[in-house]
Design brief:
This protein is of the alpha/beta class. It has two domains: 52-210 and 315-331, P-loop containing nucleotide triphosphate hydrolases (Rossmann fold, 3-Layer(aba) Sandwich), CATH 3.40.50; 211-313, 3-Layer(aba) Sandwich (Rossmann fold), CATH 3.40.50. Helices cover 37% and strands 23% of the residues. The chain has helices at 2-7, 11-19, 21-39, 65-78, 93-101, 113-122, 168-173, 187-199, 243-251, 270-279, 290-296, 320-331, and strands at 52-57, 83-87, 106-109, 127-131, 143-149, 177-182, 205-217, 223-225, 233-238, 256-261, 285-289, 307-318. Strands 1, 2, 3, 4, 5, 6, 7, 8, 9, 10, 11 and 12 form a twelve-stranded mixed β-sheet that branches. The protein is globular, with a radius of gyration of 20 Å.
Length: 339
């Protein structure tokens, strides 16, 4: 697991960080050079005939890119545009999630984002949303949205020593708007994160709350309110980058939460399913994220306990005017096609 290694105070974690420091220094230098090449115009950027919105982050995973990208797609659809979501497509689970979250959008999985944008346009999209596109600088974009989580400690070290993909100055400096995402963070944590973003170059900041919405039975049509979990024992299964905020959100429902954590983008095997079913004995619910549900659905035994996923809702709680203005600029690009 990466999180204990990145955040742990123990001797083992500190030793591992020290051992990986030369690799982190090399990563830091390489990212600096790569950004400079693009900043001074030595590397060409591929432009498309439709507006492009990038939803990304400065760290590895865990900021809520997928639900926010879907929320942006929905917001642009309401403004008369036909969204296309372009993503790398790790293990196909993210593509399936977007197809469920945004059924009216074109979803294209392609590591080459320039090619993916062209494919989305050919399929009828009039705007492209890049899910995890901030470091893919070869694809020119009209709006750079950078997500920063208020639910995790503020990282200072680059990969592999820590979760930073590039320096805060570089990453936030390219942002048109920084979106601080909140799952279970306190008001004090949110304020501290906003302040840290501003200190490091994020001049425009908005705050989005990602709340749990409803329980949905995997493989069926049944849905229940979150209140159904109060007082019950649940097994929370997660294969995501930062599972701790998800667990805290479930605990806030009043349920007794036992956790079973797998690595980010984990490809569940039959042995994993057997392990989950065994751990779920005595539990009232087995609950996972939508990303995990699309991977577990095909191998979940009919005789096993009920498997449920929790949908998410995105709610702007600060900087609404900034968000509206940013989306309006995308829609008003002179050559922007509308439906």
């Amino acid at each position: 697991m990466r999180e204990p290694f990145w955040w742990g105070d123990g001797a083992a974690a500190q030793s591992l960080r020290w051992l990986t420091s030369p690799l982190a220094a090399a990563w830091w230098a390489a990212s600096k050079v790569r950004n400079l090449v693009y900043d001074v115009g030595l590397a060409p950027m591929g432009r498309s005939g439709i507006p492009v919105v990038s939803v990304g982050n400065v760290t590895v995973g865990g900021t809520g890119k997928t639900p926010v990208a879907a929320w942006i797609a929905h917001a642009l659809s309401q403004r008369g545009m036909a969204p296309g979501i372009v993503l790398r497509g790790y293990g196909q689970d993210e593509s399936l999630v977007h197809q469920l979250l945004t059924p009216n959008a074109v979803v294209v999985a392609d590591p080459d984002r320039v090619r993916g944008i062209a494919a989305a346009r050919a399929a009828g999209a009039t705007v492209a949303i890049l899910d995890d596109g901030h470091q893919h600088r070869r694809a020119a974009r009209d709006l750079n949205l950078v997500l920063v989580s208020a639910d995790v400690p503020w990282p200072t070290w680059p990969l592999p020593m820590g979760p930073l993909r590039e320096s805060w100055a570089d990453g936030l400096g390219r942002a048109d708007l920084v979106l601080v995402t909140v799952k279970a963070a306190t008001d004090e944590q949110v304020a501290a994160t906003v302040e840290a973003v501003r200190r490091r170059g994020g001049s425009r900041v908005a705050v989005l709350r990602l709340t749990l919405d409803r329980l949905h039975r995997v493989g069926g049509q049944e849905a229940r309110a979150l209140g159904a979990l109060e007082g019950l024992r649940i097994l929370a299964v997660s294969g995501i980058a930062s599972p701790a905020p998800f667990h805290r959100q479930l605990q806030a429902t009043g349920a007794a939460v036992e956790t079973l954590v797998f690595g980010d983008h984990h490809a569940f095997q039959p042995s994993d399913v057997e392990r989950i079913v065994a751990r779920a004995r005595g539990a009232d619910f087995v609950v996972c994220t939508l990303k995990d549900a699309v991977k577990l659905q095909g191998s979940w035994p009919q005789s096993g306990p009920g498997l449920w996923y929790v949908s998410q809702r995105v709610e702007p709680i600060a900087g609404v005017a900034e968000i509206e203005a940013a989306l309006a600029r995308v829609c008003s690009r002179p050559d922007t096609p509308h439906t």
